[in-house]
Amino acid sequence: MSGTAFDVQGAGALGTLLSGNSTSRILNGVHAAIATTKTLTPLQAVGATFGTLVAALIAVLFYERKRKIRHDIPTIPTWGPLGSAPEMLAHRWDRLDWSLWKQRWHLDRGDGMTAYVWAPFQPTLIVTCDPRNVEHVLKTRFDNYIKGPVFDKIQRVMLGHGIFNADGEQWRVQRKTAANMFTINNFRDFMMHVFLDRSQILTSRLRDAARSGTIVDLHDLLYRFTLDSFMEIGYGARIDALKSDEPIPFAAAFDRAQTIINRRYSMGKIQWKVIEWFTGEGKEVVECMKVADKFAYDLIAKRRAEGGLESKNDLLSRLLVMKNPETGKPYPDVELRDMVLNFLIAGRDTTAQSLSWTFFELAKSPEAVAKFRAEISAVCPDGEPDYQTVTKQLKYGAAILSEGLRLHPSVPAEIKFAVEDDVWPDGTRIRKGDGTAWMPWVMGRLPELWGDDALEFKPERWIDSKHPGPFKWPVFNGGPRTCLGQPMVYIQAVACLAEVTRQFDLELVAPEEVVYRPALTLQMKNGLRVRVHERGAGDRTSEGIAFCA
Ligand code: HEM
Q1: Where are the transmembrane segments (predicted)?
Q2: Does the beta carbon of 177 lie inside 6 Å of ligand 1?
Q3: Are residues 304 and 418 in the same domain?
Q4: Of the candidates 38, 68, 98, which is a domain's last residue?
Q5: Residues that constitute the known binding site
Q6: 416: helix, strand or coil
Q7: Fewer CB in 10 Å around end: N or C, the chain?
């Protein structure tokens, strides 16, 4: 290869990396350098080209630094033109702990609750733990903060144009449709029936484990529990994942795609594209999504073919008879596919994770378990609970879940992008295009927000004090984009917590192994291995798998 051809390719690659006036100045420099290489030997030309590219890269890094550095917002000490990139790389496995450490550092210096972090080729992120700012972004200036193209490009292959990915009118229409479905009253009875039925299968698996002395991965069982429940409630389909230990092909493909996609958030677009091209993971995502897509389209076709949709209670049947308020026509399959997969992510992973982390905390807190058992015996002494019991009477159970979510929010961090310049309530100046982030995981651990016992698992704080509201505890978001599933989560999770706690003692096998995997949602990296002990007949009011007898 001649030195010149090689050089021009290199310059071309740089050209696609960059844009803007300064960039063209840099490129002119590169071209000038290339022209001089024409008189060199091939080896010298390669050396000169490499040197030129390195010099150009350094120039770009310094330009990026100049563009991103903010003198009006605090940040941790950075690595010159590399910003915080080296630390982000070093802390890719404990990203949340690093963020907490960073926030503590700022608070101890008197910087306040808002700081920023930057790295080359990634959007600058202004990160806040101030509930006033969170309220401002989520509610007061809702229209000024959007998910934006970064989120859309990363997630498009999986979420399509579904509700999680959408902004503006596209989001508004879907929100309306989804909100309508969640207000249907008879849906609640159907839901309750499904949750109790699946809870019974879960407890029968735990009983088998207790009797055979087998250690179980409760995290995996809870994923199966929420998958089975949501498949029935959402799509009227029974897949009985809980009755087996085998991987479910579509769920495995979907999980693999999620794992690869989640990693994209810690990189710039070019970085993840290049890495996925080299590792073949880009193609793998596409293949996995073909499996998930086929699953979704088959579900839609089957439900449509069965007919009688008007009398069915599941979400998909309701979607199939609904008309898009925009077009006045039924939703096309491609939009139904997006809804199916968006709701599956919402309905399965987050609830399974919240239950897993809450059981983890309960297993370390015998006092909370004793209080919960006393409440269960008091409010449902004879027979299965109804909707009212779970939603109104198991107050300590609900407090246990809220406390579990405070310390381990299923969505640990959120990002939105500013449409226009703005000023936050704490005085932080936001520029058009800035990424703004808040981290429920970090907020839940700050003594400044929760008192000196912030790191302790204390369900009582939800009973003894006023509810903190959605902006100090943004676990389910707040404002117009509040989680639509929150009431459903409390029914399913409180029923499941009560059912398991009433019948079993859970012993953690290796508590030190219970750690998160950095991802969009708070998975347990090594699962939740427990030894299950059936409570003696004297501990319960009766034998059996009824919810509370
Ligand atoms: C513990 C369980 C759950 C947690 C912690 C949770 C949390 C959240 C959060 C933080 C968001 C905002 C996401 C974003 O905009 O980036 C959200 C949105 C949403 N959630 Fe949940 N969620 C849970 C369970 C569920 C369930 C079971 C459903 C229903 C099937 C559901 C349905 C939705 C929907 C439809 C949205 C989109 C709302 C919108 O953008 O307008 N969620 N959830």
Answers
A1: 45-63
A2: no
A3: yes
A4: 68
A5: 483
A6: strand
A7: N
Rounded to whole angstroms, how far apart are CA atoms 106 and 95?
A: 17
Of 410, 483, 492, the one to substitute when testing ligand 1's pocket (max ligand atoms within 8 A of C-beta) is 483
CB of residue 172 inside a 6 A radius of ligand 1: no
Query: What distance in angstroms lies between residue 184's CA and the mean position of ligand 1's atoms?
Result: 18
**Are residues 326 and 471 located together in one domain of the fold?**
yes
Helices assigned H by DSSP within 160-248:
168-182, 185-212, 218-235
The reply to whether 79 falls in a domain is no
Residue nearest to atom 39 of ligand 1 (CA): 481
Helix (H, G, I), strand (E, B) or coil at 530: strand
For every residue of 346-363, DSSP letters joined together read IIIIHHHHHHHHHHHHHH
pLDDT tens per residue, range 88-128: 888 888 999 999 999 999 999 999 999 999 888 777 899 99
Nearest CA to ligand 1 atom 9: 476
Tell how far the Cα of 524 is from the centroid of ligand 1, in angstroms. 19
Residue 423 in domain: yes
Q: What is the ipTM of this complex?
A: 0.98
CATH (domain of 338): 1.10.630.10
pLDDT tier at 476 (50, 70, 90 boundaries)?
very high
Mind giving me the DSSP string for 483-524? -TTHHHHHHHHHHHHHHHHHHEEEEES-GGG--EE-SSS-EE
Q: 300: domain range?
A: 168-539
Count structural domains, the chain.
2
User: Rounded distance, CA 504 to CA 210, Å?
Assistant: 9
